From TrEMBL:
<dbReference type="Pfam" id="PF06090">
    <property type="entry name" value="Ins_P5_2-kin"/>
</dbReference>
<dbReference type="InterPro" id="IPR009286">
    <property type="entry name" value="Ins_P5_2-kin"/>
</dbReference>
<keyword id="KW-0808">Transferase</keyword>
<dbReference type="GO" id="GO:0005524">
    <property type="term" value="F:ATP binding"/>
</dbReference>
<protein>
    <recommendedName>
        <fullName>Inositol-pentakisphosphate 2-kinase</fullName>
        <ecNumber>2.7.1.158</ecNumber>
    </recommendedName>
</protein>
<dbReference type="GO" id="GO:0005634">
    <property type="term" value="C:nucleus"/>
</dbReference>
<dbReference type="GO" id="GO:0032958">
    <property type="term" value="P:inositol phosphate biosynthetic process"/>
</dbReference>
<dbReference type="GO" id="GO:0035299">
    <property type="term" value="F:inositol-1,3,4,5,6-pentakisphosphate 2-kinase activity"/>
</dbReference>
<keyword id="KW-0067">ATP-binding</keyword>
<comment type="function">
    <text>Phosphorylates Ins(1,3,4,5,6)P5 at position 2 to form Ins(1,2,3,4,5,6)P6 (InsP6 or phytate).</text>
</comment>
<keyword id="KW-0418">Kinase</keyword>
<keyword id="KW-0547">Nucleotide-binding</keyword>
Length: 431
Protein backbone atom coordinates (compact mmCIF):
# COMPACT_ATOMS: atom_id res chain seq x y z
CA UNK A 1 0.00 0.00 0.00
CA UNK A 2 1.34 3.43 -0.83
CA UNK A 3 1.81 6.07 1.84
CA UNK A 4 -1.30 8.23 2.35
CA UNK A 5 -1.02 11.75 0.93
CA UNK A 6 -2.06 13.40 4.21
CA UNK A 7 -1.31 12.65 7.85
CA UNK A 8 -2.80 14.72 10.65
CA UNK A 9 -0.14 16.64 12.62
CA UNK A 10 -2.23 18.89 14.83
CA UNK A 11 -4.79 21.66 15.18
CA UNK A 12 -4.46 25.24 16.36
CA UNK A 13 -7.21 27.63 17.36
CA UNK A 14 -7.99 28.50 13.79
CA UNK A 15 -6.54 25.79 11.57
CA UNK A 16 -5.40 22.22 11.17
CA UNK A 17 -2.00 21.12 9.89
CA UNK A 18 -1.43 17.99 7.84
CA UNK A 19 1.80 16.41 6.73
CA UNK A 20 1.99 15.99 2.96
CA UNK A 21 3.84 12.94 1.68
CA UNK A 22 4.12 14.21 -1.89
CA UNK A 23 4.19 17.98 -2.37
CA UNK A 24 3.77 17.68 -6.14
CA UNK A 25 0.11 16.80 -5.50
CA UNK A 26 -0.52 20.26 -4.05
CA UNK A 27 2.21 22.44 -5.61
CA UNK A 28 3.36 22.81 -9.20
CA UNK A 29 6.87 21.39 -9.53
CA UNK A 30 8.17 21.80 -5.97
CA UNK A 31 11.95 21.64 -5.48
CA UNK A 32 13.31 18.23 -4.53
CA UNK A 33 14.02 19.18 -0.87
CA UNK A 34 10.40 20.17 -0.37
CA UNK A 35 8.77 17.16 -1.93
CA UNK A 36 8.42 15.12 1.23
CA UNK A 37 8.95 17.87 3.77
CA UNK A 38 6.02 20.19 3.67
CA UNK A 39 2.70 20.48 5.40
CA UNK A 40 -0.69 21.89 4.50
CA UNK A 41 -2.43 24.38 6.76
CA UNK A 42 -6.17 24.41 6.21
CA UNK A 43 -8.59 26.93 7.65
CA UNK A 44 -11.99 28.31 6.70
CA UNK A 45 -10.97 31.81 7.82
CA UNK A 46 -8.29 33.87 6.05
CA UNK A 47 -4.75 33.52 7.46
CA UNK A 48 -3.95 36.33 9.90
CA UNK A 49 -0.29 36.06 10.76
CA UNK A 50 1.44 39.14 12.12
CA UNK A 51 3.30 40.61 9.15
CA UNK A 52 6.13 42.10 11.19
CA UNK A 53 6.74 38.89 13.09
CA UNK A 54 6.86 36.98 9.83
CA UNK A 55 9.30 39.46 8.29
CA UNK A 56 11.63 39.32 11.29
CA UNK A 57 11.44 35.55 11.66
CA UNK A 58 11.31 34.49 8.03
CA UNK A 59 14.34 32.16 8.19
CA UNK A 60 12.70 30.37 11.11
CA UNK A 61 9.22 30.26 9.58
CA UNK A 62 9.98 29.26 6.01
CA UNK A 63 7.54 29.27 3.13
CA UNK A 64 3.91 30.29 2.89
CA UNK A 65 2.22 29.45 -0.39
CA UNK A 66 -1.47 29.68 -0.95
CA UNK A 67 -2.88 26.84 -3.08
CA UNK A 68 -6.40 26.00 -4.27
CA UNK A 69 -8.14 23.16 -2.50
CA UNK A 70 -10.47 21.49 -5.00
CA UNK A 71 -13.24 19.31 -3.59
CA UNK A 72 -11.52 15.95 -4.11
CA UNK A 73 -8.36 17.13 -2.35
CA UNK A 74 -10.39 18.74 0.43
CA UNK A 75 -12.26 15.50 1.05
CA UNK A 76 -9.06 13.51 1.10
CA UNK A 77 -7.63 15.95 3.64
CA UNK A 78 -10.78 15.99 5.75
CA UNK A 79 -10.80 12.20 5.97
CA UNK A 80 -7.65 12.27 8.17
CA UNK A 81 -8.79 15.15 10.41
CA UNK A 82 -10.46 14.16 13.71
CA UNK A 83 -14.13 15.08 13.63
CA UNK A 84 -13.91 17.61 16.46
CA UNK A 85 -11.73 19.82 14.23
CA UNK A 86 -13.97 19.72 11.16
CA UNK A 87 -15.52 23.04 12.20
CA UNK A 88 -12.13 24.69 11.54
CA UNK A 89 -11.92 23.54 7.93
CA UNK A 90 -15.48 23.02 6.63
CA UNK A 91 -16.01 25.23 3.60
CA UNK A 92 -12.31 25.92 2.99
CA UNK A 93 -11.41 26.29 -0.69
CA UNK A 94 -7.79 27.37 -0.32
CA UNK A 95 -4.96 26.14 1.88
CA UNK A 96 -1.41 27.21 2.67
CA UNK A 97 1.66 25.12 2.06
CA UNK A 98 4.07 25.52 4.99
CA UNK A 99 7.18 23.62 6.12
CA UNK A 100 6.78 20.43 8.08
CA UNK A 101 8.74 21.07 11.24
CA UNK A 102 8.25 17.60 12.63
CA UNK A 103 10.20 16.08 9.74
CA UNK A 104 13.54 14.50 10.58
CA UNK A 105 16.23 17.14 9.91
CA UNK A 106 18.73 14.36 9.10
CA UNK A 107 16.55 13.11 6.28
CA UNK A 108 15.86 16.61 4.94
CA UNK A 109 19.55 17.34 4.55
CA UNK A 110 20.32 13.79 3.40
CA UNK A 111 22.80 13.80 6.23
CA UNK A 112 25.79 11.53 5.68
CA UNK A 113 25.69 10.36 9.32
CA UNK A 114 22.27 8.94 8.51
CA UNK A 115 23.92 6.47 6.16
CA UNK A 116 25.19 4.23 8.91
CA UNK A 117 22.57 2.03 10.48
CA UNK A 118 21.08 3.51 13.60
CA UNK A 119 19.91 1.31 16.46
CA UNK A 120 16.48 1.63 18.09
CA UNK A 121 18.21 2.83 21.26
CA UNK A 122 19.90 5.65 19.33
CA UNK A 123 16.62 6.64 17.72
CA UNK A 124 15.28 7.55 21.13
CA UNK A 125 17.33 10.70 20.77
CA UNK A 126 15.26 11.82 17.76
CA UNK A 127 12.47 14.12 18.83
CA UNK A 128 10.72 17.42 18.35
CA UNK A 129 9.97 19.66 21.30
CA UNK A 130 8.06 22.90 21.64
CA UNK A 131 9.49 25.71 23.74
CA UNK A 132 7.51 28.78 24.72
CA UNK A 133 10.32 31.10 25.85
CA UNK A 134 7.87 33.90 26.83
CA UNK A 135 8.95 37.48 27.25
CA UNK A 136 12.36 39.09 27.66
CA UNK A 137 12.69 41.56 30.52
CA UNK A 138 14.43 44.91 30.21
CA UNK A 139 13.76 47.79 32.52
CA UNK A 140 10.95 49.81 30.92
CA UNK A 141 11.90 53.13 29.37
CA UNK A 142 8.50 54.82 29.25
CA UNK A 143 7.23 54.40 32.81
CA UNK A 144 4.42 56.94 33.02
CA UNK A 145 1.98 59.04 31.06
CA UNK A 146 0.20 62.35 31.58
CA UNK A 147 -3.25 62.42 30.02
CA UNK A 148 -5.35 65.59 29.59
CA UNK A 149 -3.11 67.49 32.02
CA UNK A 150 -4.06 65.24 34.97
CA UNK A 151 -1.90 63.50 37.58
CA UNK A 152 0.82 61.25 36.14
CA UNK A 153 -0.14 57.60 35.69
CA UNK A 154 2.73 55.18 36.35
CA UNK A 155 3.32 51.52 35.61
CA UNK A 156 3.27 49.12 38.54
CA UNK A 157 6.73 49.18 40.19
CA UNK A 158 6.98 45.36 39.94
CA UNK A 159 7.72 45.90 36.26
CA UNK A 160 10.85 47.90 37.12
CA UNK A 161 12.56 44.83 38.52
CA UNK A 162 10.66 41.63 37.74
CA UNK A 163 9.90 39.88 34.46
CA UNK A 164 6.35 39.04 33.48
CA UNK A 165 7.16 35.34 33.67
CA UNK A 166 7.88 35.52 37.41
CA UNK A 167 4.74 37.60 37.95
CA UNK A 168 2.77 34.94 36.09
CA UNK A 169 4.00 32.25 38.49
CA UNK A 170 2.23 34.08 41.32
CA UNK A 171 -0.81 34.71 39.14
CA UNK A 172 -1.10 31.06 38.13
CA UNK A 173 -0.54 29.91 41.72
CA UNK A 174 -3.52 32.03 42.76
CA UNK A 175 -5.70 31.23 39.76
CA UNK A 176 -5.08 27.47 39.83
CA UNK A 177 -4.93 27.34 43.61
CA UNK A 178 -1.53 25.69 43.37
CA UNK A 179 0.97 27.21 45.80
CA UNK A 180 3.80 25.10 44.43
CA UNK A 181 3.94 27.23 41.27
CA UNK A 182 5.08 30.27 43.24
CA UNK A 183 7.53 28.38 45.40
CA UNK A 184 11.25 28.72 44.75
CA UNK A 185 10.72 31.44 42.15
CA UNK A 186 14.38 32.36 42.53
CA UNK A 187 15.40 28.96 41.19
CA UNK A 188 12.73 28.89 38.46
CA UNK A 189 13.14 29.66 34.81
CA UNK A 190 13.45 33.31 33.78
CA UNK A 191 13.21 34.15 30.05
CA UNK A 192 16.33 36.30 30.31
CA UNK A 193 18.41 33.12 30.60
CA UNK A 194 17.70 32.71 26.90
CA UNK A 195 17.67 36.34 25.82
CA UNK A 196 20.51 37.87 27.82
CA UNK A 197 24.06 37.50 26.58
CA UNK A 198 25.24 37.55 30.20
CA UNK A 199 23.24 34.47 31.17
CA UNK A 200 23.43 30.85 30.09
CA UNK A 201 20.80 29.29 27.82
CA UNK A 202 21.86 25.93 29.18
CA UNK A 203 20.87 26.96 32.69
CA UNK A 204 17.63 28.43 31.33
CA UNK A 205 16.74 25.21 29.56
CA UNK A 206 17.59 23.12 32.64
CA UNK A 207 15.35 25.28 34.78
CA UNK A 208 12.56 25.10 32.22
CA UNK A 209 12.81 21.34 32.06
CA UNK A 210 12.57 21.09 35.85
CA UNK A 211 9.38 23.11 36.02
CA UNK A 212 7.97 22.95 32.52
CA UNK A 213 4.37 24.04 33.30
CA UNK A 214 3.15 24.39 29.71
CA UNK A 215 6.22 26.10 28.32
CA UNK A 216 8.00 22.92 27.29
CA UNK A 217 6.24 20.07 25.50
CA UNK A 218 7.14 17.00 23.52
CA UNK A 219 5.64 17.16 20.02
CA UNK A 220 7.01 13.93 18.61
CA UNK A 221 9.28 11.25 19.98
CA UNK A 222 10.17 7.58 19.86
CA UNK A 223 7.06 5.38 20.23
CA UNK A 224 8.44 3.75 23.39
CA UNK A 225 7.97 7.02 25.33
CA UNK A 226 4.36 7.25 24.20
CA UNK A 227 3.70 3.69 25.31
CA UNK A 228 5.11 4.51 28.71
CA UNK A 229 2.90 7.60 28.97
CA UNK A 230 -0.09 5.38 28.03
CA UNK A 231 -1.76 7.81 25.66
CA UNK A 232 -1.26 10.79 27.97
CA UNK A 233 1.19 13.63 27.48
CA UNK A 234 4.80 12.54 27.32
CA UNK A 235 6.80 14.28 30.09
CA UNK A 236 9.74 16.25 28.60
CA UNK A 237 12.00 14.94 31.37
CA UNK A 238 11.51 11.37 30.07
CA UNK A 239 12.51 12.21 26.51
CA UNK A 240 15.22 14.84 26.97
CA UNK A 241 18.26 13.19 28.50
CA UNK A 242 20.63 15.26 30.62
CA UNK A 243 23.34 14.62 28.05
CA UNK A 244 21.15 16.36 25.42
CA UNK A 245 20.84 19.64 27.27
CA UNK A 246 24.05 21.27 26.14
CA UNK A 247 23.41 20.44 22.49
CA UNK A 248 19.91 21.92 22.65
CA UNK A 249 21.12 25.10 24.35
CA UNK A 250 23.94 25.48 21.80
CA UNK A 251 21.55 24.92 18.90
CA UNK A 252 19.22 27.62 20.22
CA UNK A 253 22.12 30.05 20.71
CA UNK A 254 23.68 29.38 17.32
CA UNK A 255 20.37 29.76 15.54
CA UNK A 256 20.19 33.34 16.95
CA UNK A 257 16.44 33.01 17.26
CA UNK A 258 16.32 34.78 20.60
CA UNK A 259 17.77 38.00 19.17
CA UNK A 260 14.93 38.19 16.65
CA UNK A 261 12.15 37.15 19.01
CA UNK A 262 13.41 39.40 21.84
CA UNK A 263 13.51 42.44 19.56
CA UNK A 264 9.94 41.81 18.39
CA UNK A 265 8.78 41.54 21.98
CA UNK A 266 10.54 44.73 23.05
CA UNK A 267 9.79 46.90 20.03
CA UNK A 268 6.72 45.34 18.39
CA UNK A 269 8.05 45.96 14.91
CA UNK A 270 10.67 44.76 12.51
CA UNK A 271 13.68 47.03 11.98
CA UNK A 272 17.16 46.57 10.57
CA UNK A 273 18.45 48.67 13.42
CA UNK A 274 16.49 48.96 16.66
CA UNK A 275 18.70 51.59 18.28
CA UNK A 276 16.33 54.43 17.36
CA UNK A 277 13.08 52.57 18.04
CA UNK A 278 11.15 53.25 21.25
CA UNK A 279 10.17 50.09 23.15
CA UNK A 280 6.54 49.03 23.18
CA UNK A 281 4.33 50.96 25.56
CA UNK A 282 3.06 49.07 28.58
CA UNK A 283 -0.70 48.48 28.54
CA UNK A 284 -1.00 50.45 31.83
CA UNK A 285 0.03 53.51 29.80
CA UNK A 286 -1.32 52.66 26.36
CA UNK A 287 -4.84 52.14 27.62
CA UNK A 288 -5.17 55.58 29.33
CA UNK A 289 -3.79 57.14 26.15
CA UNK A 290 -6.66 55.62 24.15
CA UNK A 291 -9.06 57.17 26.70
CA UNK A 292 -7.54 60.67 26.45
CA UNK A 293 -9.88 63.48 25.36
CA UNK A 294 -6.94 65.20 23.71
CA UNK A 295 -4.71 62.47 22.33
CA UNK A 296 -2.19 64.97 20.93
CA UNK A 297 -1.35 66.59 24.27
CA UNK A 298 -0.27 63.36 25.97
CA UNK A 299 3.19 63.35 27.59
CA UNK A 300 5.30 60.30 28.31
CA UNK A 301 7.45 59.96 31.41
CA UNK A 302 10.75 58.46 30.38
CA UNK A 303 13.70 56.83 32.17
CA UNK A 304 17.12 56.29 30.57
CA UNK A 305 17.46 52.88 28.90
CA UNK A 306 19.59 50.29 30.66
CA UNK A 307 19.43 47.10 28.62
CA UNK A 308 22.04 45.28 30.70
CA UNK A 309 20.26 45.41 34.06
CA UNK A 310 19.53 41.85 35.17
CA UNK A 311 15.99 40.71 35.98
CA UNK A 312 15.66 40.52 39.76
CA UNK A 313 13.38 37.48 39.86
CA UNK A 314 16.22 35.02 40.28
CA UNK A 315 18.41 37.09 42.58
CA UNK A 316 16.50 39.19 45.09
CA UNK A 317 13.20 39.44 46.84
CA UNK A 318 10.82 42.15 45.81
CA UNK A 319 11.37 45.71 46.96
CA UNK A 320 9.28 48.18 44.96
CA UNK A 321 11.58 50.69 43.28
CA UNK A 322 8.87 53.35 43.41
CA UNK A 323 11.38 56.19 43.86
CA UNK A 324 12.74 55.48 40.38
CA UNK A 325 9.42 56.49 38.86
CA UNK A 326 9.83 60.02 40.23
CA UNK A 327 13.04 60.42 38.21
CA UNK A 328 11.27 59.99 34.89
CA UNK A 329 11.32 62.99 32.58
CA UNK A 330 8.32 64.25 30.59
CA UNK A 331 8.65 64.02 26.85
CA UNK A 332 6.36 64.22 23.82
CA UNK A 333 5.60 60.77 22.35
CA UNK A 334 7.75 60.01 19.31
CA UNK A 335 5.07 57.81 17.70
CA UNK A 336 1.36 58.20 17.10
CA UNK A 337 -1.23 56.39 19.19
CA UNK A 338 -2.11 54.29 16.16
CA UNK A 339 1.50 53.10 15.80
CA UNK A 340 1.72 52.46 19.53
CA UNK A 341 -1.35 50.18 19.32
CA UNK A 342 0.00 48.32 16.27
CA UNK A 343 3.31 47.71 18.02
CA UNK A 344 1.60 46.61 21.19
CA UNK A 345 -0.35 43.92 19.34
CA UNK A 346 2.74 42.75 17.45
CA UNK A 347 4.58 42.35 20.74
CA UNK A 348 1.68 40.35 22.18
CA UNK A 349 2.08 37.91 19.30
CA UNK A 350 5.85 37.77 19.77
CA UNK A 351 5.54 37.13 23.50
CA UNK A 352 3.49 34.03 22.82
CA UNK A 353 5.58 32.56 20.02
CA UNK A 354 6.47 28.88 20.11
CA UNK A 355 9.81 27.50 19.02
CA UNK A 356 10.02 24.03 17.60
CA UNK A 357 13.32 22.28 18.01
CA UNK A 358 13.81 18.95 16.34
CA UNK A 359 16.82 16.84 17.08
CA UNK A 360 18.25 14.08 15.02
CA UNK A 361 20.98 12.46 16.93
CA UNK A 362 23.19 9.56 17.54
CA UNK A 363 22.73 9.56 21.26
CA UNK A 364 25.39 6.98 21.98
CA UNK A 365 28.06 9.24 20.62
CA UNK A 366 29.42 11.00 23.68
CA UNK A 367 28.84 14.75 23.53
CA UNK A 368 32.48 15.40 24.33
CA UNK A 369 33.62 18.85 25.28
CA UNK A 370 35.05 20.76 22.39
CA UNK A 371 32.79 19.20 19.75
CA UNK A 372 32.41 21.80 17.06
CA UNK A 373 29.11 23.61 16.63
CA UNK A 374 28.15 25.18 13.33
CA UNK A 375 25.16 26.72 11.71
CA UNK A 376 24.53 24.97 8.40
CA UNK A 377 24.37 27.38 5.51
CA UNK A 378 22.93 26.92 2.02
CA UNK A 379 19.69 25.31 3.15
CA UNK A 380 16.75 26.03 0.85
CA UNK A 381 15.09 29.06 2.57
CA UNK A 382 11.53 27.86 1.87
CA UNK A 383 12.22 24.75 3.98
CA UNK A 384 12.24 27.01 7.02
CA UNK A 385 14.11 26.61 10.26
CA UNK A 386 17.76 27.14 11.04
CA UNK A 387 19.90 23.98 11.03
CA UNK A 388 22.73 23.57 13.52
CA UNK A 389 25.15 20.71 13.74
CA UNK A 390 26.99 19.78 16.90
CA UNK A 391 29.30 16.85 16.41
CA UNK A 392 27.09 14.19 14.87
CA UNK A 393 23.88 15.71 16.21
CA UNK A 394 21.69 17.77 13.99
CA UNK A 395 19.12 20.33 15.12
CA UNK A 396 16.51 22.42 13.42
CA UNK A 397 15.13 25.49 15.16
CA UNK A 398 11.88 26.96 13.88
CA UNK A 399 9.22 29.46 14.92
CA UNK A 400 5.47 28.85 14.80
CA UNK A 401 2.32 30.50 16.14
CA UNK A 402 2.66 34.04 14.91
CA UNK A 403 -1.05 34.73 14.50
CA UNK A 404 -2.27 38.25 15.25
CA UNK A 405 -3.91 38.69 18.61
CA UNK A 406 -6.15 41.56 17.57
CA UNK A 407 -9.26 39.54 18.40
CA UNK A 408 -8.84 40.62 22.03
CA UNK A 409 -9.46 44.25 22.97
CA UNK A 410 -7.08 46.61 24.77
CA UNK A 411 -9.58 46.64 27.68
CA UNK A 412 -9.02 42.91 27.99
CA UNK A 413 -5.22 43.28 28.16
CA UNK A 414 -5.52 46.19 30.59
CA UNK A 415 -7.70 44.23 33.01
CA UNK A 416 -5.64 41.06 32.65
CA UNK A 417 -2.45 42.98 33.42
CA UNK A 418 -4.02 44.47 36.56
CA UNK A 419 -4.93 40.98 37.80
CA UNK A 420 -1.40 39.71 37.25
CA UNK A 421 0.40 42.50 39.12
CA UNK A 422 -2.16 42.26 41.95
CA UNK A 423 -1.53 38.50 42.27
CA UNK A 424 2.22 39.17 42.24
CA UNK A 425 1.88 41.74 45.01
CA UNK A 426 -0.25 39.40 47.14
CA UNK A 427 2.03 36.46 46.46
CA UNK A 428 5.32 38.11 47.45
CA UNK A 429 3.73 39.53 50.60
CA UNK A 430 2.78 36.04 51.72
CA UNK A 431 6.33 34.74 51.39
ZN1 LIG B 1 12.94 37.11 35.49
ZN1 LIG C 1 4.30 40.69 15.37
Amino acid sequence: MSEPLFTFIGAGQRNVVLQVSDASKVLDSPPEELKTNCALRISNVPPCECENCYKALKPFCGMRESVPLPEALFNEAKSVVPEKFHRLIDGATVATVVPNFSADPGRILADPARQRSVTEEERKGDYTIEIKPKSIWQRPVVVGIIVDGGEPIYIHPAKLSHCRYSQMLYYKAERDNDESLAQDVASSYCPNFFYSKDLSSLEGFERLKQKAINNLKVISCHPSFKEKAAGGKVPPADVIADADLKGIADALDFSEIFQSVGALQLYGTYAEDYSKVTPVLDIELLYPWTQAKDKESVQWLVLPADADLPCACTSEGYTPKTELLQQAVAQKPDITLETAIERFYCSVTAKDISLLLSRYCLRLVDPKNGVSVERIKDVLPSLGGVFVREGEDLFRVAAVDIDEKTNKTLDHYYEYDAKIVKAFENGVKKQ
